[in-house]
Design goal:
Layout lengths: L12 H9 L6 H13 L4 H14 L3 H12 L15 E5 L7 H11 L4 E5 L9 H6 L10 H11 L1 E5 L6 H11 L7 H13 L5 E8 L8 H17 L3 E8 L7 E2 L1 H12 L5 H17 L6 H13 L2 H12 L18 E6 L4 E6 L1 H13 L13 E4 L6 E2 L4 E7 L2 H14 E4 L10 E5 L7
Parallel strand pairs: 1-4, 2-3, 4-5
Antiparallel strand pairs: 5-13, 6-9, 7-11, 8-10, 8-12, 9-11
Helix pairs in contact: 1-3, 2-4, 4-9, 5-11, 5-12, 5-14, 9-10, 12-13, 15-16
The structure holds uracil (URA).
The site of uracil has 9 residues, from helix 9.
């Protein structure tokens, strides 16, 4: 952790909050003070919540963003993985609905010879979190101490954990607070959150999946590109190869939303099945990971290798191995019934004939949170079994009474609220959808070939 400088000891949280509230630029010492004191438990949640809201409303300069990222990065240990011969590459998404690509990508890239030390987050706002999905696998431990994290990484080439008391502890606390205080949607806070934990992993390269659309934190493509540039610049400043793909999140990715359901879809993709959009995005991101990881000369070559690893079953074998090494029940791979199952289901059906014109993605994510798949308060636990299965995606023809989605639930009152929200998120048009949004909007970063 950063030492608190002599001058920093004289700071008061209230002054730092007021300064940001009034649009001032915080010094490195002020930011160090706030981050370190909060991580130690010396500043209460309510003061940091006020400061976070001031940042959301006032923004940050590049210097402040760099100071915040550094303070969060050095709030814990920075791993040194130089003893591993393979290049260390990770990927991180800015968050979406039904976005389970990390669970596919870590074992797939590892099977190709890249090391993937992945530190992920929990559900945030309306979006799902990798850790909550992994914990849907009975026994899976996302809280490995660093030494064990290394052992898993050495044994199977990938390991997936959360921020710990040792690695990026500041992000662990701030992330949980932002989740429930309406302070997620700031490019500066997202950049510091993602880059602090990624840079603490001891990686050589990073592939960022920056979402845009109705289910993303940065809804417009311009805002998504701004966030992407901020993160790429931060990573490059630290000597890492970073590329950011701006990808679509205007409807959920794949068909399953909810922690255990998403694990089912991960296994499908690793079997060479699963929905086309999810498969395509996984292959694209894997292609970049293999390219930056030095095992593929070109991204296209990385994509071909990834497809072969899926076809041969090697990606799925690696997933099974990782699950077992992290204490999870590997039988979930062959028998989805070993995953938590909701007690009840109900359906959302189409009110008319036509074509699915849009699906308000944030509302779908919120419906899953309401079912219990995410948190409404910091101390809430998630229900791994609940979620939503989409039977129609944007552009599909629908007829009146046809099932649009199945809701998996455990509590009646929650299901009724979720159903209402879900029904309101569908827009059915009379005519076919003319223009479909691209899955990959653009690529940003010096390490990218297509910018
Ligand atoms: N993912 C993170 O890790 N942090 C954020 O702030 C948003 C998405």
């Amino acid at each position: 952790m950063n030492p608190t400088s002599a001058s920093a000891q004289t700071f008061r949280a209230i002054d730092v909050i007021r300064k940001k509230r009034d649009g001032g630029e915080l010094s490195r010492d002020e930011i160090d003070y706030l981050v370190n004191s909060y991580t130690r438990g010396d500043i209460p949640d309510y003061q940091v919540s006020a400061w976070l809201m001031a940042v959301v409303l006032r923004g940050m300069t590049r210097a402040e963003t760099a100071s915040l990222t550094d303070a969060m990065l050095h709030s814990g240990e920075v791993l040194n993985l130089s003893s591993l011969a393979a290049r260390k590459v990770d990927k991180h998404s800015t968050g979406g609905v039904g976005d389970k690509t990390s669970l596919v990508l870590a074992p797939l890239a590892a099977a190709a010879g890249v090391a993937v030390p992945m530190i992920s987050g929990r559900g945030l706002g309306h979006t799902g979190g990798t850790l909550d999905k992994l914990e849907a696998i009975p026994g899976f431990n996302v809280n490995l101490p660093v030494a064990q994290f290394r052992r898993v990484l050495e044994a199977c080439g990938c390991a997936m954990i959360g921020q710990t008391a040792e690695i990026a502890p500041a992000d662990r606390k701030l992330y949980a607070l932002r989740d429930v205080t309406g302070t997620v949607e700031s490019p500066y806070l997202i950049c510091a959150s993602i880059m602090s934990k990624k840079l603490a992993e001891g990686i050589d390269a990073l592939v960022l999946d920056v979402k845009t659309g109705s289910g993303a934190f940065m809804k417009g493509e311009k805002d998504a590109a701004f966030l992407a540039e901020l993160m790429v610049e931060t990573g490059e400043r630290m000597g890492k190869k970073v590329v950011a793909l701006i990808t679509d999140m205007d409807q959920p990715l794949g068909r399953m939303i909810g922690n255990a359901l998403e694990v089912v879809e991960v296994v499908e993709v690793l079997r060479g099945e699963g929905p086309e959009d999810l498969r395509q995005l996984c292959i694209e991101l894997a292609g970049w990971m293999l390219h930056l990881g030095g095992v593929a000369d070109e991204v296209e070559d990385g994509k071909t290798q990834s497809e072969k690893l899926i076809a041969s079953g090697k990606g799925l074998d690696r997933f099974r191995q990782m699950v077992e090494l992290q204490g999870g029940d590997p039988r979930v791979v062959d028998d989805a019934k070993k995953l938590p199952q909701a007690r009840h289901t109900t359906i959302v059906s189409s009110p008319k004939n036509g074509y699915l014109a849009s699906l308000q993605c944030e509302q779908v994510g919120t419906a899953c949170v309401i079912l219990g798949g995410g948190r409404e308060r910091k101390e809430d636990s998630v229900d791994p079994a609940v979620g939503i299965v989409l039977h129609k995606k944007v552009g599909d023809a629908v007829s009146v009474g046809e099932t649009l989605a199945t809701i998996h639930y455990n509590a009646e009152t929650r299901a009724a609220r979720a159903q209402q929200l879900l029904e309101a998120s569908y827009q059915i048009a009379d005519l076919p959808v003319r223009e479909k949004r691209p899955l990959i909007h653009r690529v940003i970063g010096k390490s990218g070939e297509k910018n």
